[in-house]
Amino acid sequence: AICGHGCKYGECTGPNKCKCFPGFTGKTCNQDLNECGLKPRPCEHRCMNTHGSYKCYCLDGYMLMPDGTCASSRTCAMVNCQYGCEEVKGEVQCLCPSGGLQLGPNGRTCIDVDECSTGKAVCSYNRRCVNTFGSYYCKCQLGYELKYISGRYDCVDVNECVTNTHRCNLHAECLNTEGSFKCKCKQGYRGSGFDCA
């Protein structure tokens, strides 16, 4: 089967028909499915939507169970965790609902991990890392745009000379470069290309 528009997070099952991987939706499977909005709700107390998935966490004084329910816990109530807790070998530990969050110095609240500055994020060479609370995503570098080409999404150079987004002088030529552009004064003029006299 051929899907001309592509299936970003899924597979092509029929002419222009995508079967999305779990956690994704849309005609081209390019949208994150917000599991927290589904009925019945996947979590008893609180739900945090993440890219392609979700995390459950409990109100203070409750403990997260493997099925997403929350059990009352006197020990958890005493610890006063921001996002619920778990008991491991009789010891109470506070939880963070995502790997992009870590327990703060007080051991009760969760703080964001900046994957972009710690080098934990892996983005391909033509993409830049953007940190979010609890996670990160990869965005095309400046001068590139996301396009669907020969079966996959890729960051492609923007030709500023064609899109007319350059700032070259009226008496200058625009020359496209990878990720940017250059301006060169036309014959009979001299200057930087942004200013020509």
Automatic annotation (TrEMBL):
It is found in: Secreted, Extracellular space, Extracellular matrix. Signal peptide: none annotated. InterPro entries: EGF, EGF-like_Ca-bd_dom, EGF-type_Asp/Asn_hydroxyl_site, EGF_Ca-bd_CS, Growth_fac_rcpt_cys_sf, Nephronectin_domain, NOTCH1_EGF-like. The keyword Signal applies. GO terms for biological process: cell adhesion; cell differentiation. SUPFAM superfamilies: Growth factor receptor domain. It holds the Pfam family EGF_CA. Keywords: Calcium, Cell adhesion, Developmental protein, Differentiation, Disulfide bond, EGF-like domain, Extracellular matrix, Repeat, Secreted, Signal. It comes from the Eukaryota. One of its GO terms (molecular function) is calcium ion binding. Its main location: secreted. Residues 32-71, 112-150, 157-195 form the EGF-like domain. Belongs to the nephronectin family. This is EGFL6 protein.
